[in-house]
Amino acid sequence: MALFFPFLALSGSATTTKSILSIDKVGAASLTEQIDPIEGAPFNMPQFKRPVFPQLTVNIINKGATEIEPITTIINQAITEVSKQGGGTVIIPKGKWKSGRIILKSNVNLHLAEGAELEFPGTAEEYLPPVFTRHEGIEVMGPGSFIYADGEDNIAITGKGVIYGPPMNAEIRQRPNGSTVVENDITFNMPIEQRITDGMNGRTFYRPKTIAPINCTNVFIEGIRMERSTFWNVCPIYCENVIIRGITVNSIDVPSGDGIDIESCKNVLIEYCTLNCGDDCFTLKAGRAEDGLRVGKATENVVIRYSLAKEGHGGITCGSETAGGIKNIYLHDCVFDGTQVGIRFKTRRSRGGGVNDILYERIRMTNVGEAFKWDLLGSAKYVGKLAERYPPRPINKLTPIIKNIHIRDFIVESAEQVLNINAIPEVPCSNVLIENGQINSKRLIGAINDVDGFTIRDVDITCSEDNQINILDSRNILFEDVNFMVPTGKVITNIKGEASKNIIYRQKEEKIECKNKQSIKVDLLSQM
C-alpha cells in the first residue's frame, strides 16, 4: 500500500549521508555572526534578521550597582528607564553579580558582558510577587523565571556572560516542585488568579525557569551560557518571532532541567546551540490537557538547525504537553551525541492535541540509547490506568493524534536500539516515513505497536546483538530496500494482533522470516 503524506513529498532525497555535518561543525562553538536565510522548510517562515536597538546604553555600575549587594532594584529600574526613553542596551559588566527576578521591557537588550556572572537567589520569598506563567503546560501565578517579560516587544538577552541558578543546596531546590501530577495541584475550572503557586502559607511552589518571556513578540537570545538551573532553562510561552542562537546550557543533575522548551509559540528559529541537560534538550510543547485545550495555542513554524544535543533524555522531543498542537517543525543539520533518545515523540491519552507535519533531515547520532522513539502511553505514575494499552479508550477531545512524520538523511553511528513505537489502539500513529540513512545498533526494532502507515526506505541497518522486529496490531507497514545486517543473517518478524495486516518487505535479498500465523509479503527488488 502506498502511503500518502499531504504535507511532504515522498520523492527520494538527493542528499547523501556524506553531507551530514560532524560534531565540530555545529553548536555554540560554531556560531556565525550573520543569520543565514531559512531554506528548505516545507512551510512559510519569515526571514529573520538581527534586531536593532537605539544607541542609548546604560552600564549598571553607573547606576550604583556593586558586587556586594543584590542588583535587583538597580537593574530593573535601569531597564524600565531605558524602555521609557525608547529603548537601548542595559549592560551587566564583568564581575560576580547577584539579582532577584529581572523583568525585561520593550526595546531593551540586556547584555551580559564577557566575564559577567549573574546568580539568582535560592529562596521562594525572593520570587514574589507571583507572575503569570505556565508550569508544565498549565497557566498559573508563580515564580515565573529568573529573567521574565510579559506582553513586551523587541526584547533581547545577549552577550558572553553566564547565568547561574542558586547553589545546589538552596532552599527552593529542597522544596517539592509541586505534585508529581500537575493536575493534582490545579483544577481545570479554577480561575487563573487563584492558581497561586508561590510557596507561601503552605501553597504549592513551582520552581522558576531561567528565561521565560510570555505573550511577547520579537524575542532575541544569543550567546549566553546557563548553568545550574532549577527547572527548564529557556522557555518562551505564547511568543511570536523568536530567535535563539549560540547559547549553551549545562543542567546535568538538575531534575526536569530541560534545555530549550518552545511552548505555544509561532515563527521560531533555533540555531548553533549546545545543550547538555538533565532532561530533554530541544523540546516542543503546546499546553496540557483541559487547560491547554482551553488556551488553544499551537507551537508552529519552528526551524532548528546547526545545533548540538549532548546528554539529555531526548535530542529533539515533541511533547508531552501537546494540547494546542505541535506542527510545522523543520530540524536539519544537527548532532545528538549521548542523549538517551535521539528523536522522541511523547504524549499521553489525557494530553489532547497532537503532533503533525514534521520534517527532520541531515542528522548525526552517536552513543544514543534509542535512535527513534514514540511513546503515547506513558507511566502509571503520571496517568494511572491510562498507561495500560488495552482496552482502547473512547476517542474524545483529550485523545492525542500523531501523524505525518518524515525523517531522512541521517547517520546513527552507535545506538542501543533502532526504534520503538508504542502508540494507542484507538488512534494509531500514522504516516511515518524514515528514509536514506545508516544505523549501527545493538538491537533492532523493539516495538511497532498500533501504527497505521509506516515506511523505512533505503536504510542500512547493522545490529550486533539482535535480529528481531516486533509488530503488534499495526498495518500498512513497508520495509523497502532496507539492508539488514544482523546475527544469523535472518530478520525474524514477530507479528501479533488481529489488526496487523499488509506488512511488506521489498528487499534485494530474501532475509526475512515470520514467526507467526499472520502473513508478510516479501518482494525481491531484483524480480520487480
Helix count? 4
Could you say which overall geometry the principal axes of the C-alpha atoms support?
globular
CATH architecture of the domain at 45-279: 3 Solenoid
Strand content: over 45%
CATH class category label of the domain at 45-279: Mainly Beta
Helix share bin: under 10%
CATH domain topology of the domain at 45-279: Pectate Lyase C-like
Return the average pLDDT rounded to an integer: 95
Count of beta strands: 36
Spans where pLDDT lies below 50 across 5 or more residues: 1-15
Note the main sheet: 31 strands, parallel
Alpha-carbon distance between the termini?
15 Å
The CATH homology group name of the domain at 45-279: Single-stranded right-handed beta-helix, Pectin lyase-like
Helical/strand content category: mainly beta
GO biological process, one term: carbohydrate metabolic process
GO molecular function: polygalacturonase activity
Pfam family, one: Glyco_hydro_28
Family: Belongs to the glycosyl hydrolase 28 family.
Please characterize this protein's 3D structure.
With 528 residues, the chain is mostly beta strands. The protein has a domain at 45-279: Pectate Lyase C-like. Helices cover 5% and strands 45% of the residues. The protein is built from four helices and 36 strands. The protein has helices at residues 72-84, 171-174, 289-295, 380-383, and strands at 57-59, 88-92, 95-98, 102-103, 108-112, 116-119, 131-135, 138-142, 145-150, 153-159, 162-164, 209-214, 217-222, 225-227, 240-245, 248-250, 260-263, 266-271, 274-276, 282-285, 299-305, 308-309, 312-318, 326-337, 339-346, 354-366, 368-375, 401-422, 429-449, 451-463, 468-472, 475-485, 491-496, 501-507, 512-514, 521-524. The strands form three sheets. It has a 31-stranded parallel β-sheet that branches. A three-stranded parallel β-sheet has the order 4-9-12. The chain is globular and about 80 Å long. This is Glycoside hydrolase. Belongs to the glycosyl hydrolase 28 family. Keywords: Glycosidase, Hydrolase.
